[in-house]
Design goal:
Number of strands: 7
Helix content: 25-40%
Bound molecules: magnesium ion
Shape: globular
Structural class: alpha+beta
Radius of gyration: 16 Å
Number of helices: 6
Largest sheet: 5 strands, mixed
Order of helices and strands: HEEEEHHHEHEHE
Length: 166
């Protein structure tokens, strides 16, 4: 049936990432600079949210992970803008015949409080993915003081993306 064959063009992907807090670096989430007394440690700009989102896109397209294409062993990606890595990955999935339908992301952080920044992050993701804001959603939660995010050791992020194969 035609309806069924259309459904087979849909591909879902999941991404997950963690970065540890450190002092003396800016906190960048989803391409947005967030006021914070601590930032995240990483070879690139350590944008944990964009890394999870990028992995969800690559995963949905059946490609390898972000570390495979942008290895942290390479000087080329030292302090890299993760927005550029996402846009490069987006081009890769477009070349494979995929378009983004939607993405939904969750940031897990005990600190700082993210609710004032959700709108800005959503706008940033929508712009990086070149899709309307109605197709991108951003959520934040804490882990109630439990685990490494609860202990304020770092931030985790999950992402799911839905792609359509042309
Ligand atoms: Mg990462």
């Amino acid at each position: 049936m035609e309806f069924e064959s259309e459904l087979f063009r849909l591909r879902i992907g999941h991404g997950y990432d963690v970065h540890r807090f450190c002092e003396g670096r800016p906190l960048i989430l989803g391409g947005v600079s967030i006021p914070s007394d601590r930032g995240l440690l990483g070879h690139s700009d350590a944008d944990v949210l964009l890394h999870a989102l990028t992995d969800s896109l690559l995963g949905a397209a059946g490609l390898r992970d972000i570390g495979f294409y942008f290895p942290d062993s390479s000087d080329k990606y030292e302090n890299a803008d993760s927005g550029e890595l996402l846009v490069t990955s987006l081009k890769m999935i477009n070349e494979q015949g995929f378009d983004v339908i939607s993405a939904d992301v969750t940031i897990i952080a005990e600190t700082p409080k993210l609710s004032p920044h959700i709108g800005k992050i959503r706008t940033s993701l929508s712009s990086l993915l070149s899709v309307g804001e109605d197709r991108v959603n951003v959520k934040a939660t804490t882990e109630e003081g439990l685990g490494f995010t609860g202990a304020r050791l770092g931030i985790a992020a999950h992402a799911v993306s839905l792609l359509y194969k042309r």
